[in-house]
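Researcher: Structure for this, please.
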Amino acid sequence: MKKKILTIVLAVGVCVVGVLLGMEYTTAKNAGIPKENVTQVKAPEQTESMEHPDFVREEYVAEVPEGTNIAPEASKVDANACTGNYTARNTIDGDTDGASYWEGEGNNYPNTLTYTFEEPVSIHAMRLLLNPDPIWGKRTQEFEIQVSTDGENYETIVEKQGYDFNPDTGNQVIAEFDATDIKGLQIVFYSNTGANAGQAAEVELYSN
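Model: Predicted structure, token format:
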């Protein structure tokens, strides 16, 4: 009697495995994925938990322009509008995490961020960062950079263009230009594929 029960259990087990394999085959076949587009990764022999080398992501080392970030020295940091507590001052607090970012007024482009200095300063680059956490997925923001020599009248120094932000590469972009003496810098946002307003966690202005 025990042999019959064992035989039945084994038979059922084989049938279940066969059904699962059949389902897997059918699912793969129905997916319509060409064989040449499928990469098989062989599991390494292991005696403890480990990460397969094919899945190890290299740590990204952030690019930083030459010079010193003088944005925190601005006497005034302002925006034409903001959403909730995501104010312009958040962009110079040295923090890119959590709620420490600026977000313009939704669906009301252009959004502007403005940095004004008491005395003229010379800058040659701007770095704009978003929160580097992967939850802040890839997005493209379109903006231009304007400068002022008197803190009131602005002219474009970097034309409007799209900048790609990717958490895999630090969620940051750098705009470089010829060294320029300014009393004010303004970033004018026109679109954002990741939100309905411009966004910035930190804005850094570099001077030699």
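Researcher: Any notable elements?
Model: Confidence is low (pLDDT under 50) at residues 4-26. The beta strands are 68-69, 76-79, 102-103, 111-129, 139-148, 155-165, 172-192, 199-200, 202-207.
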